[in-house]
């Protein structure tokens, strides 16, 4: 089995609390790269980390909140004018991702002709509860309790004998325990410390259930202000902007 690593482009919450970038991760696996999530600061984060935009083989988006997909129009703009795509690119996520991405792009750059780049971007809908083969990658999804009208997803990604589970944004769900069983890495959101909601996970909830997660390694991400301000009290690993997680 070859080594796989994750470059954290942004480990912050929707508010970019305390200056942490919003969601973004690049999974590197033996020459292949997955961009997972595309927060508004996506291009800046990729360029600071030295990741060429035309070396992305697959894009995964967990849900349609702006801090997770609003960087896609800037990525498309990059492909149109700065770094042309040399191959087709699959962008996979929940239903309506294609429509919402193009609507956002048109609102931002209404006068641009997107016909050429649109022919190279292949949007794929990921259905909850299914495994989908995308190039070299197997992606299994579950629906998470985060959005109501739209679908929010968590991912289990398998490549080169390694497995990574990403919770996306989610309230507590028993399915996440099952999805992450035996995974090499679990990236799990930890937005709050004391605030309790049914659409985000808090640190005490993770502590109470830590022993039930059977992933080999757990790293907290999507970090909010409450957690940052009490970071000395957090046990375990916390993702940070620019870090590389080897597994």
The amount of beta strand, in percent, is 25-35%
Which stretches of 5+ consecutive residues score pLDDT under 50?
Answer: none
Mean pLDDT: 97
Distance between the termini: 11 Å
Main beta sheet strand tally, sense and closure: 7 strands, mixed
Order of helices and strands: EEEHEHHEHHEEEEEHEHEHEE
As a whole number of angstroms, the C-alpha radius of gyration is 17 Å
In DSSP terms, counting alpha (H) and pi (I) runs of 4 or more, how many helices?
8
Query: For this entry, what is the oligomeric state of its chains?
Result: single chain
The strand line-up of the biggest sheet is 6-5-4-3-2-1-14
Q: What's the total count of β strands? A: 14
Shape: globular
Q: Considering DSSP H and I runs of 4 or more, what fraction of the residues is helical?
A: 10-25%
């Amino acid at each position: 089995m070859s080594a796989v690593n994750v470059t954290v482009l942004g480990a912050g919450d929707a508010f970019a609390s305390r200056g942490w970038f919003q969601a973004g991760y690049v999974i590197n696996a033996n020459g292949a790269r997955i961009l997972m999530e595309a927060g508004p600061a996506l291009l800046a984060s990729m360029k600071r980390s030295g990741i060429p935009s035309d070396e992305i083989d697959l894009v995964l988006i967990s849900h349609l909140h702006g801090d997770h997909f609003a960087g896609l129009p800037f990525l498309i703009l990059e492909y149109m004018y700065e770094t042309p795509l040399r191959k087709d690119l699959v962008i996979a996520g929940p239903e309506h991702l294609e429509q919402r991405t193009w609507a956002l792009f048109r609102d931002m750059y209404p006068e641009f002709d997107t016909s050429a780049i649109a022919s190279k971007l292949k949007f794929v809908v990921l259905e909850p509860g299914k495994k989908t083969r995308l190039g070299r990658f197997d992606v299994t999804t579950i629906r998470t309790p985060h959005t109501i009208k739209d679908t929010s997803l968590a991912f289990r990604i398998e490549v080169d004998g390694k497995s990574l589970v990403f919770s996306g944004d989610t309230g507590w769900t028993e399915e996440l325990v099952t999805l992450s069983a035996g995974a090499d890495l679990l990236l799990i959101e930890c937005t709050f410390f004391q605030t309790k909601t049914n659409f985000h996970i808090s640190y005490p909830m993770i502590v109470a259930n830590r022993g039930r997660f059977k992933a080999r390694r757990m790293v907290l991400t999507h970090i909010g202000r409450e957690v940052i301000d009490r970071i000395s009290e957090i046990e375990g690993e916390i993702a940070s902007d620019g870090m590389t997680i080897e597994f």
